[in-house]
Amino acid sequence: MSDQGPPGKPLRALPIIGGLVLGAVVCWIWIAGSLIVGLGAAYGQDSGALAAVGLAVAALPVVLGIVLLVRPSSRQLGAGFLMGIAIGMIVGAGVCASLFLPGSF
Fold it and tell me: 9: which DSSP letter?
């Protein structure tokens, strides 16, 4: 006899899929913002304050996803949000790597 604990809330697809889409969109905005701040710093069009704010803001999506995951009422949305961020990063890395392949230009 196995003890599986008390049954939880049933999984609903809508919050998970919505969180996944939202996380992927936030991730791509996050990547675009990082590129803008990074290119500004590389070409001298940036102050140190903007780079510091960009670094501080970079942690917000992950912290938001963890907060959503910890709260029982938004746990499924938080799981989808964190999955969306992870998938967005993987896809973003693939797109970035494909730009440096020979013959891609």
Answer: P
Beta strands in 1-105 (DSSP E): none
Residue 86 and residue 88: Cα distance in Å, rounded?
5
- Beta carbons within 8 Å of 85's beta carbon, 6+ residues apart: 23, 24, 26, 27, 61, 62, 65
Residue 96 structure tokens: 């970035």
Output the pTM of the full model.
0.75
Q: What does the pLDDT look like over 22-69, one tens digit per residue? A: 999 998 888 888 777 777 766 776 666 776 777 777 788 889 999 999
> Diameter of the chain by CA atoms?
67
Read off the amino acid at residue 20. L
Helix locations, the chain, DSSP H: 13-42, 48-58, 60-70, 75-99
Measured between alpha carbons, how far is 65 from 26 in angstroms, rounded to an integer?
11
The Cα–Cα gap between 92 and 27 comes to: 9
